[in-house]
Write a structure and sequence with these properties.
Elements (H helix, E strand, L loop, with lengths): L1 H26 L18 H23 L5 H15 L3 H17 L5 H37 L3 H14 L4 H13 L4
Length: 188
Amino acid sequence: MRLKRFLYFAIIIIFALMSPLTISACSKTGETGQQTAVADRDTKSSESETSKLQQSATSTTVKETTTTSRSLPENLQKFIDDADKLFKAGEYAEAVSAYRTAKTNLQATSSVDPEIISKAIEKMEVNFDKAKTITDTARIHYGNAMQLEYEKRIDEAIEQLEEALKIYPRYQDAIDALASIKTLYKLK
């Protein structure tokens, strides 16, 4: 009962954190004037939520890399390109770090028009926010799993780890924990 209540509140918090992102992303338009695709706020299960996050994340990446490359110097564009590559590869935690580095380097430069810098940062933040949401959601499931394992509720812990890996398949802590639990308790 406590786990269900905790998960319910965790999902509410995630949706509350995502709603400002959805509203702000819907109001932005690309250079072609078309609305940016955003995952639907009303999902019925975490599987559809995960699928939509990953689909919208990959479709946005291609558009973002092509629109920012025209106006930034190569050395600054490389930071964004490196972060986009990590994002497309599903390395969301590394992408978050790379986007932060790119933003810091963009803000520190004075040789480029500030308007170009702000547009590049604005476009880059779409993928940054998605990567951050994916990693945060996966970490919540991982944390739940660790608590459940401590309480010797192994089947539920495995479910939480599998859920984390559905959201973020390359989440190494969850991969290691799942393998460890299965080995420790001799499960397949």
